[in-house]
Amino acid sequence: MSAAAELKRRLRDRSEHYLMRAAVRDLGAGQPGTVEPYRDRGGLLWRLLFVPLYRRVPWPLKRRAMDALRMTARGWQPPERRPREPWRPPPPDH
Question: Closest Cα to residue 55, out of 20, 19, 25, 85?
Fold first, then answer.
């Protein structure tokens, strides 16, 4: 694996990890528990800068950045739909 490919893989793994942790923290906020939530001191840059910034950037800009970095599948186009329209399966091929 080339150095650039390894760097992109690590970037994607780390960003997914901290976005997932933030989502789990948000889902659990306000829910009753028996233990205090664990406060990890690592990843401050990711938690305090990347996650809030990622949440504020509009999806078309994120998509262009991922395409420019070639971090998406090639040759696959997502189905067209308008904003806020729920996902629906593609029409069957007959």
Answer: 19
The pLDDT profile of the chain, 94 residues, written as one tens digit per residue, is 789 889 888 988 999 999 999 999 898 888 888 887 777 888 889 999 999 999 999 988 988 888 888 877 777 776 677 777 787 777 787 5
> Degrees (nearest 5) of the Cα angle 12, 13, 17?
115
pTM summary value: 0.70
What's the CA gap between 22 and 18, in Å, rounded? 6
From 6, 26, 8, select the one nearest 18 (Cα to Cα): 26
Query: How far apart are the C-alpha atoms of 74 and 15, rounded to whole Å?
Result: 20
The contacts of residue 1 (CB under 8 Å, 6+ apart) are 9
Tokens of 2: 């080339």
Please say whether the beta carbons of 62 and 74 come within 8 A: no
